[in-house]
Amino acid sequence: MLTFSLLVYSLALSLSFFVFPFVLFDANKSKTCNAEGFENLRPLSYPESDVFLIVFDVTNPDSLSNVKTKWVTEIRETVPNPHIVLVGNKCDLQANVDEEEMHRVARTIGAAGGMALICSALNDEGVDELFNYAIRSVLSASSGSGDGGCCTLA
Questions:
Q1: What average pLDDT is seen over the chain?
Q2: Confidence of residue 135 (pLDDT cuts 50, 70, 90)
Q3: Would you say residue 19 has pLDDT above 80?
Q4: Are 139 and 16 in contact (CB under 8 A)?
Q5: What DSSP string runs through 43-87?
Q6: How confident is the model at residue 1, as a pLDDT?
Q7: C-alpha span between 137 and 153 (Å, rounded)
Q8: What are 73-117's pLDDT values in tens digits?
Q9: Gyration radius of the chain over CA positions
Q10: Gap between the Cα atoms of 131 and 115, Å rounded
Q11: What is the pTM (predicted TM-score) of this model?
């Protein structure tokens, strides 16, 4: 039997006097799950997502390479025109990925603003700004679409 871990976080974020219901799907593989089964399960959360936070490790250049070769490719198989925010995590550590390279990848994949944001989840540095940016960017991209005020991230 396979066991999968799909964490769902739900909260309300306030932004410019508005409150937005916010749902974040964290598709982490559990230790008891085989990789093949998880590869098939993960994309099931994609079609209803408004924005994708693709997070890479700034201390690992291979992590940035996977943005193009794995994550964007996988997302676009299910969502033809995804709204992507590219995020470099672990900025509290010594970066081994050039900042200009991060922005070049962001432009190449069509990330919001053509740039990569950086943050440190460990130190909570830039995390609030990241989520505010993600919400603002998806709302400005969908303004006039009448989609309501819920933002779902994958």
A1: 78
A2: confident
A3: no
A4: no
A5: GGGSTT-SBEEEEEETT-HHHHHHIIIIIIHHHHHH-SS--EEEE
A6: 38
A7: 12
A8: 999 999 988 999 999 999 999 999 999 999 999 999 999 999 999
A9: 16
A10: 15
A11: 0.76
Q: Is 25 helix (H, G, I), strand (E, B) or coil?
A: strand
Whole-angstrom Cα distance, residue 142 to residue 152?
13
Contact 127, 115 (CB under 8 A): no
| 3-state class (DSSP) for residue 10 | strand
CA distances from 141 to 6, 11, 32, 38, 90 (A): 27, 22, 39, 31, 28
Count CA atoms closer than 13 A to 68's CA, side-chain side.
14
Query: In the chain, what are the domains?
Result: 7-153 (3.40.50.300)
Q: Locate 132 and state its tokens.
A: 């505010």
Q: Which of 153, 57, 56 is nearest to 109 (CA)?
A: 56
Q: Which residue bears the tokens 């070049």?
A: 104
Percent of the chain with pLDDT over 90: 40
Beta strand pairing call for 7-15 and 18-26: antiparallel
